[in-house]
Amino acid sequence: MVQAKKIALYIVFIFVLYTIIHSPKRAAELVQVGFEGISSAAQGVGDFMTELVK
User: Fold this and answer.
1) First-to-last C-alpha distance (Å) of the chain
2) Largest CA distance in the chain
3) Distance between CA atoms of 1 and 27, rounded to whole angstroms?
4) Structure confidence at residue 50 (pLDDT)
């Protein structure tokens, strides 16, 4: 099972490297979308906590 996780991790790593090398503009867009999603989630949690305290 541990080897399967290692192999899956290597495959993801190789895919990420391939994407960055092959299409850096698209890779940057995907990273931006990911960070926007994380930011929105954090803002939602913050809003929830603010309303909870009120």
Assistant:
1) 48
2) 50
3) 30
4) 94
